[in-house]
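Suppose you are handed a protein chain with no further information: no name, no annotation, nothing but its sequence. What can you learn? This example shows the usual starting point.
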Amino acid sequence: MCRMCSCARALLTDDDANAAYAPFTVVDQAVSAIATRRESSFAKGLVNAVLRNFLRERDTLIAEASRSEVARWNYPQWWIGTGKAWSARRAATHPRRG
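A reasonable first move is to predict its three-dimensional structure. Written in structure tokens, the prediction is:
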């Protein structure tokens, strides 16, 4: 499973010009990794479909995710709000000297 996550991460972080491997190679490796484990081999088609769909919609999905604080910070919205409130309170009570 870890190998598949690494493949998915490679598709997310590398642009085509700087990628170590072609996107179809990464998808193939992810599907192969899933197929090697008996308990998860049933998901080969799902992994293939999800990763190929991600490749088709990559720019749109990344743009949408970058607009979301939850996706950007990987914390629930209530936690982000708490951090913002704490930061605002701290800034109000401890102004920066400059």
